[in-house]
């Protein structure tokens, strides 16, 4: 806040019993005088500035110390090069009323600190007026009485008695967006002459600026005569509601009264307003997993972006006298758009890279309207959230999925994807749904790698259930659903049958599983094979083959079932069964007509001649002959006698023809007949 001292009118000077004239101007106060004006007493304006920060958060003592220091440093008078119409303009910092009073006393030709009471408030400001506050009280267009009540409660500047419901923002002094109240003072009784107030805006301190709004004094919805605060007890004070503040950069504002007759009064001293968000409050943190913390906070319409910060060190590593709000002790870990989707009116951000679990870090949320405004002095103190501790806990961690497989007959393999910041896992085993045992598995590799554990102490043929949960010295995480596994011998492979001679059955064989045999021995079992013929009993064999010597007639079928078995005492744990079928097929043999053997399976006949052949089946069953193609080079016939098929051929023309001989026992044979010339 700044004050611009301009020409002091004779009328106001007389009211102050001061011998000044219309042409008299305030002279410069030397740097030495300005320094003398500084005081260590807490002033009303300094208290106001510091309390604004207190209203927004819990860092009260820290904000007061910094604002008090700012008030002390701000008491020096600063010369402004701009000139007002009435003469030289002198700008002073109003955050130090005593510094201002000293400059005023100097201008009046006295060396006394006239106008400063015992509480450090300036009483003697009869000839000075202008904006002294811009605040974000709630505005109700159709409730002027309610607006006035809130304004009068505000100007008590008794922050402990403030009603939070009076303000749009948590920060009492912060305007919401582009709307708020402008509070200003006038000499006592001067307001009766005023018809309207003009609001002037300037980007330069000390400049008269440009008129941006005019307020008719009779408009009770936008202009209010309010109680005078203690530091302006000898003034008439007013407030106007304005809803077109620039929301992107700071400006200097002044109020200029215009009398009923059209004459302008002085524009008074200027007030620098910086667009600002609300102080972020009500920040909450929640552990999501061993490496994730969720931070949430309320939405503010003024904010374009939120920056999220995490402290570089643990909460417990901050010393008692260390400033936990100092952002140099933090790292920015992310940003959230002010237009991001809200959940129950709150923003959220998940810190997915928490350095370690079960240790707390501080989090701070910084609201940003524009990057330039965020560079304003004391911005972080007034608008950043208070530090809030957050901890990623193993208690909220859970393995996504536990995979359990039978790696071999004597080994179960457990595998899972590791979790960040988790160094131990508790594995629990159940045997047939009854608790068996549990143990802690320590991670020796990278904590996010895929981890494996091999269990080789179990019984075959039993269902085992496994669960896993993250664990630490201070907490246990959430367990997975149980994964079940059971170990039995693997099924035999390579099962086949071979025909034995003389219709004496088949030889059955399969691939020997030597690794399963060794694994069974490791678990204390004897490894054997068992075979069953058709629906008979199981026959135990040691090797990987069986010779079936029983007689089989042609065309008959036999089924063999084979399994692997692990035996310990009376307990037998068998594999799944493998089955194959063996069928004795009927074979057909050709003979010459005289019964002698043929040199090949081709029959010959000359044109217009006749040839004779015989055929018999190994099963002795009846046979027949039929055409196998569409040729008609040969005429043929056949009949059965004494177990033979007698075949007669007569050649029609030179060429070939195919015939098929079949037996009732399932035998089948294709024969080529060649017709040759005589």
Structure description:
Helices cover 11% and strands 40% of the residues. The protein is elongated and about 155 Å long. It starts with a strand and ends with a strand. Strands 28, 29, 31, 32 and 33 form a five-stranded antiparallel beta sheet that branches. It has eight helices and 41 strands. The chain folds into six domains: 1-128, no CATH class; 129-275, Immunoglobulin-like (Sandwich), CATH 2.60.40; 284-392, Immunoglobulin-like (Sandwich); 403-486, Sandwich (Immunoglobulin-like), CATH 2.60.40.10; 496-583, Sandwich (Immunoglobulin-like); 588-676, Immunoglobulins (Immunoglobulin-like, Sandwich). Helix 2 (31-37) packs across helix 5. It is mostly beta strands and 678 residues long. The longest helix is centred in the first third of the chain and has 14 residues, at 60-73.
| Structure classification | mainly beta
Largest sheet: 5 strands, antiparallel
Q: Give the number of domains.
A: 6
Q: Average pLDDT, to the nearest integer?
A: 80
Q: What is the CATH level 1 assignment of the largest domain?
A: Mainly Beta
Inertia-based shape = elongated
Number of strands: 41
Which tags fit this structure?
6 domains, Immunoglobulin-like, 4-stranded antiparallel β-sheet, 678 residues, 40% strand, 5-stranded antiparallel β-sheet, mainly beta, 8 helices
List the helices and strands and how they pair.
Elements (H helix, E strand, L loop, with lengths): L1 E4 L4 H6 L15 H7 L6 H13 L3 H14 L4 E7 L2 E7 L3 H11 L22 E6 L8 H11 L25 E8 L6 E9 L7 E7 L6 E4 L8 E8 L8 E9 L11 E3 L10 E4 L5 E6 L6 E10 L15 E8 L8 E6 L8 E9 L10 H5 L4 E4 L11 E6 L2 E7 L6 E8 L2 E9 L7 E6 L7 E9 L11 E4 L9 E4 L6 E4 L4 H9 L3 E8 L5 E3 L3 E3 L9 E12 L2 E4 L3 E6 L4 E5 L9 E5 L3 E8 L5 E5 L6 E8 L2 E8 L3 E9 L4 E9 L2
Parallel strand pairs: 35-41
Antiparallel strand pairs: 1-3, 2-3, 4-5, 5-9, 6-7, 6-10, 8-9, 10-11, 12-13, 13-16, 14-15, 14-17, 17-18, 19-20, 20-23, 21-22, 21-24, 24-25, 26-27, 27-30, 28-29, 28-31, 31-32, 31-33, 34-36, 36-39, 37-40, 38-39, 40-41
Helix pairs in contact: 2-5, 3-4
């Amino acid at each position: 806040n700044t004050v611009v001292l301009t020409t002091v009118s004779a009328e106001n000077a007389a009211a102050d019993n001061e011998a000044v004239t219309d042409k008299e101007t305030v002279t410069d106060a030397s740097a030495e005088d300005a320094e003398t004006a500084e005081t260590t007493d807490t002033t009303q304006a300094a208290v106001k500035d510091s309390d604004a920060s207190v209203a927004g958060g819990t860092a009260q003592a820290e904000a007061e110390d910094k604002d008090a220091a700012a008030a002390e440093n701000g008491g020096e008078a600063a010369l402004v090069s701009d000139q007002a119409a009435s003469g030289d303009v002198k700008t002073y910092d109003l955050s130090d009323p005593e510094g201002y009073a000293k400059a005023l006393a100097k201008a009046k030709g006295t060396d006394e600190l006239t106008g400063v009471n015992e509480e450090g408030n300036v009483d003697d400001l009869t000839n000075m007026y202008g904006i002294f506050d811009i605040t974000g009280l709630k505005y109700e267009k159709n409730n002027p009485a309610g607006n006035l009540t809130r304004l009068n409660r505000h100007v008590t500047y008794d922050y402990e008695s403030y009603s939070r419901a009076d303000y749009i923002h948590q920060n009492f002094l912060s305007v919401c967006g582009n709307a708020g109240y402008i509070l200003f003072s006038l000499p006592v009784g001067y307001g009766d002459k005023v018809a309207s107030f003009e609001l002037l805006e300037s980007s330069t301190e000390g400049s008269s600026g440009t008129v941006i709004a005019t307020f008719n004094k009779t408009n009770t919805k936008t202009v209010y005569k309010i109680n005078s605060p203690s530091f302006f007890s000898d003034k008439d004070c007013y407030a106007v509601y304005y809803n077109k503040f620039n929301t992107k950069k700071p400006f200097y504002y002044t109020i200029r009264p215009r009398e009923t007759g059209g004459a302008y009064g002085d524009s008074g001293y200027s007030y620098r307003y910086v667009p600002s968000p609300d102080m972020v409050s009500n920040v909450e943190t929640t552990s999501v997993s061993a490496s994730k913390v969720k931070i949430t906070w309320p939405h503010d319409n003024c904010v374009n972006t939120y920056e999220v910060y995490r402290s570089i060190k643990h909460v417990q590593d901050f010393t008692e006298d260390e400033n936990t709000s100092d952002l140099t002790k933090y790292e920015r870990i992310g940003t959230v758009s002010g237009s991001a989707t809200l959940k129950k009116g709150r923003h959220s951000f998940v810190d997915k890279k928490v350095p370690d679990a079960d240790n707390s870090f501080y989090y701070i949320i910084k609201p940003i309207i524009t990057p330039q405004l965020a560079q304003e002095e004391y911005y972080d103190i007034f608008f950043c959230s208070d530090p809030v501790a957050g901890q990623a806990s193993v208690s909220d961690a859970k393995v996504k999925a536990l995979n359990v497989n039978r790696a071999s007959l004597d080994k179960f393999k457990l595998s899972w994807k590791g979790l960040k910041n988790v160094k131990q896992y508790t594995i629990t085993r159940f045997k047939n749904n009854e608790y068996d045992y549990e143990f802690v598995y320590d991670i020796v590799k990278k904590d996010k790698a895929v981890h494996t554990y091999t269990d080789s102490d179990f019984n075959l043929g039993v269902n085992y259930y496994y669960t896993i949960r993250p664990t630490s010295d201070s907490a246990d995480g959430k367990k997975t659903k149980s994964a079940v596994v059971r170990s039995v011998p693997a099924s035999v492979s390579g099962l086949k049958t071979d025909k034995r001679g003389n219709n004496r059955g088949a030889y059955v064989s399969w691939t020997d599983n030597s690794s399963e045999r060794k694994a069974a021995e490791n678990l204390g079992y004897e490894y054997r094979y068992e075979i069953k013929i058709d629906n008979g009993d199981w026959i135990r064999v040691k090797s990987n083959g069986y010779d079936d010597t029983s007689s089989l007639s042609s065309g008959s079928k036999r089924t063999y079932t084979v399994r692997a078995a692990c035996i310990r005492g009376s307990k037998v744990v068998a594999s799944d069964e493998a089955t194959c079928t063996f069928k004795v097929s009927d074979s057909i043999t050709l003979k010459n007509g005289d019964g002698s053997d043929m040199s090949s399976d081709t029959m010959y006949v000359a044109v217009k001649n006749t040839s004779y052949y015989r055929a018999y089946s190994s099963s002795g069953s009846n046979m027949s002959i039929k055409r196998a193609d569409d040729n008609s080079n040969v005429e043929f016939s056949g009949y059965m006698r004494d177990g033979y098929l007698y075949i007669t051929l007569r050649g029609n023309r030179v060429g070939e023809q195919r015939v098929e001989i079949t037996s009732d026992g399932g035998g089948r044979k294709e024969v080529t007949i060649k017709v040759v010339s005589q």
